[in-house]
Amino acid sequence: SYDINHLFVRTISLSAVSDQSVYQNIGCYKDNSARMIPTLRTLSSTPTSCAALSEDSEKLVFGLQGGGECWTGDSVNAAISLGYVSKCPINGLPWSNQVFVRKYCFPGWTTASTFTGNAVTMACQQCAIGHYC
Question: Please, which residues bridge with residue 29 across strands?
Fold first, then answer.
């Protein structure tokens, strides 16, 4: 039994896997008042400090918006759902998140990977409280 809020599936190129950083920047994506990355962590952040906040709370996705707001969440599909934004600085734009995705599951989470051509699809699931994965 898994916490459905922590189900995460994504596809990345194999060349990205060779990068040793924990989170990978996947580009800038539109946001709206419903918040595609739901949790505001701080109003002034860098990619490094927002990654640390995301890591501490075991969030799989974080975004920088509006010059440094740090937002965290678990759904890459939601984070990119409103479309790509070009020419976006690393700290985002108003109503646009520079999105970063965790490349590896957290310790204790289940991982399932499949390889297709030059891409890997990874699923991370957090064990439900009181259950083992």
Answer: 84, 97
Contact 39, 72 (CB under 8 A): yes
Instruction: Encode pLDDT of 16-64 as tens digits.
Output: 333 347 788 989 999 999 999 999 999 999 999 999 899 888 888 999 9
Three-class DSSP category at 50: helix
Q: Are 1 and 67 in contact (CB under 8 A)?
A: no
DSSP β-bridge partners for residue 111: 124
Q: Which helix (H) or strand (E) holds 69?
A: strand 69-73
SS3 content of the chain, % helix, strand, coil (to 5): 15, 40, 45
